[in-house]
Specification:
This protein has helices at 18-37, 57-69, 82-95, 125-139, 152-168, 192-198, 209-222, 253-256, 261-279, and strands spanning 4-11, 45-52, 75-78, 98-101, 118-120, 143-149, 171-178, 202-206, 229-232. By secondary structure, the chain is an alpha/beta fold.
């Protein structure tokens, strides 16, 4: 019989989403420390075995198999990128082990992919767009241009905005698809002339991590914030010191996260506050 419960964590600990995945691992580490200090689970201590998939689907699948077969994990938490979640989930389903997905995805919640031990704690891109998009159309304008990361999450965000725009009588005047992760120095800025020509009221960015920081820097350098409102779906708050005209933080999550309710939100807040007291820095995501 195992002396400890082995928790696997796999995500993009390096690369475009590195800082956020590292924050998530720090949050899990704090939770495990609190569990163990309270006597563990049924008297057993919990240990963490982590793996870096660099937000690459192939590495995510390989890393998951390694954690299952070599490290003999009991369950898994991870998958910040929508591009890796389904690969992790598939391996966990084959092994009959519990997987808690921590990133945004529409597909993992569908019957095709949802296994008996699949849990998804994050919002879906559809939910995020419903919350933010309605606020944007009501407060900033209905003529929008979307800059999106060209992979699963960005595709889902675009699809959700297309549906919502049709319902709200809004207009998507253009879409710029950015390679994921962005590599060239002008991956964002080369689209700015087209954006300016389209004259949107709102520029909506569907990106995160290092790509998001690059986008914000380029937007500010070009002065686009003086021509239109700038909105990003997800922000790591402490990472941004931008002077843009307007950023809409994803605070709507508190409204949309109905299954957890107020108690769930208080638990999350308490956990984040505990981390901040111990580490003298906030958790970002």
């Amino acid at each position: 019989m195992k002396e400890t419960i082995r928790l696997g964590f796999i995500s993009g600990l390096s690369g475009v989403y590195g800082w956020s995945a590292q924050d998530q691992l720090r949050g899990i580490t704090l939770a495990v420390e609190q569990i163990n200090s309270g006597g563990g689970i049924s008297g057993k201590k919990v240990s963490i075995i982590s793996r870096d998939d660099t937000s690459d689907p192939k590495k995510a699948a390989e890393g998951t198999r390694y954690l299952i077969e070599k490290e003999k994990i009991d369950f898994m938490v991870g998958g910040l990128s929508a591009g890796t979640q389904l690969f992790i989930n598939e391996e966990m389903k084959k092994a009959g082990l519990l997987f808690i997905s921590i990133g945004q995805s529409n597909e993992i919640t569908t019957a095709k992919h949802l296994g008996p031990y699949t849990f998804h704690e994050a919002l879906t891109p559809y939910m995020t767009v419903q919350g933010m998009g309605k606020w944007v159309f009501a407060n900033l304008g209905k003529k929008i241009f979307i800059v999106m990361s060209d992979y699963e999450w960005g595709w889902h965000v675009l699809s959700a905005y297309e549906l919502l725009a049709k319902e709200a009588g809004a207009q998507i005047v253009g879409v710029a698809k950015i390679p994921f992760p962005a590599k060239a120095s002008n991956d964002f800025s080369k689209h700015f002339p087209v954006i300016l020509k389209a004259k949107p009221e709102v520029l909506i960015a569907a990106n995160f991590g290092a790509d998001q920081l690059k986008f914000i820097e380029d937007v500010n350098t070009a002065g686009l914030q003086r021509k239109m409102s700038i909105v990003n779906l997800l922000l790591g708050a402490e990472r941004h010191t931008s002077g843009s005209k307007q950023f809409c933080f994803a605070l709507h999550q508190a409204i949309q996260w109905r299954p957890l309710g107020i108690r769930g939100l208080r638990i999350q807040w308490s956990h984040g506050a505990s981390y901040s007291r111990q580490k003298s820095k906030p958790l970002s995501y």
